[in-house]
Every structure is written in structure tokens, then in C-alpha cells.
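Input record (one chain):
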Amino acid sequence: MTAPHRPWKPRHRLDGPEDAPVVVLGPSLGTSMDLWLPQLPALARSWRVLRYDLPGHGGAPAPDGPLTVEELAGGITDLLDGLGVERAAYAGVSLGGAVGTALALAAPHRVASLVLVCTSPRFGDPAAWRDRAALVRREGVGPVAGSAAGRWFTPAFEDAEAYVAMLRATDPEGYAACCDALAGFDATARLGGISAPTLVIAGERDVPTPPRGHADRLAAGIPDARLAVVEGAGHLANAERPDAVTREITAHLDRTWRGHDR
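The corresponding structure, as predicted from the sequence alone:
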């Protein structure tokens, strides 16, 4: 008999002052919560920083069944409930950004401010994601890890291997399930329903989600969203150009989320 599918429970970590307003940080497909280490010192000075790992990523358990981006967002809502957090800001990279988009649509009263980094309302052809999921289930994460540096960074970035190592350590089923989740995600027609003050950050040289056709659609579709394009940055812009991305995020949060309405 097949075991019932259990709700996703994120593996998480908290940093920063216990009484500060909460900021949730979502990682990208194939990385762990440590993707956000470049921003952590600056954010943890003024905010309670809640980082999480995706299923099968960063040592978190693999999922026991299929997942959607909306279910991933539901896991964040449950996590906030368990921590007694009514409202939080949310910042996410790539898949982590999609989770933030879904969260802001499903529970607008929970999202005080939103930062979407190198992400999209729709991640291209769903068939390509399902093909990638099938490849990883068949051959493991090795094939996608071998080409990750070229997808994630510009050729000038010298520290790619530290991030590729996160992908090599990812559980194949966790990675594949997240690919399937991306295949089924399309928030394009619903972006007008996001009410949180939103900053969209794009990497100028991002290959998977370039500014044109991805970040610009988010910025155009979300009411009053602002778009910031980071020069010389690839897909993991917060890792490749950490200072520029940190400045954009902290300025946005300083303006929109100091916890006054907690």
C-alpha cells in the first residue's frame, strides 16, 4: 500500500535579533540556504533572518511525492505559523523567487515586502523541465552539475565551484521534484494580485532568466514593482555581485519592512 503524501516541512535556520522583523530567504534550485551567506551579515544586523532548504537540498529530506510551487509556498506558511510569525518579508532567488510569488498571491496578508531575484513568472517550456527531471532520476545530478557553472555565473566569476558543490550534494529526487514543480508554474496572468511592495532584481547576464522576458514581465505585471538590473551578474546574482544585491535588498527592506505593523 502506498504511503500517503505528507505536507512539506522546510528545514530552516534563524539568525539575527529575536525581536526584529522577520525576513525569509528562499534558495534556488540546486543550492542550499547557504546561497544567502553573502547577504546574511548585513541582513542579520536589523532583521530576524529565516533561511530554509528546498526538499532534498542542503541535507533536507527528499519529498515523498510530487510537489507544486504552491505547495512549497504552503510549507513556508506552515513554517511561519509554527514560529508564531504573522507577517514577514520574503526574498528568493530563481525557484525561491517563484515560491515567494506564490506565497504573496496565496497569503497576501502574510507578506509585508517582496524581493524577487533572478526569477520569472514562468520558467520556459515545461517539457524541458520534465526532461531534466527524468535525466536526474535516471543518471543522478552529475550531468546537471557539470554544466551548472555556465548556467549560473559569468565566465569571470572565480568561486563557482563552492556553489556547484551544493548541487552535487543535492538528492536526485529532491532536485527532480523541484524541476517538475517549475514545469507546472505559471503566475503570469495572476501577477496583478500581488499587493506587497516588490523589488525585482535581475542579473544583466543571467542566462536562465534574462531581464528581458522574465524580470521585466514580473516588474510590469506586479503593481508598482521596481526593477533593478545588476551589471555583470549571471543567474545567481546575489553570489556573483553580493555587494550590489545586498544594497538593493537592504534599501528596499529599510523602506518597506521595519516591522511597525507586526
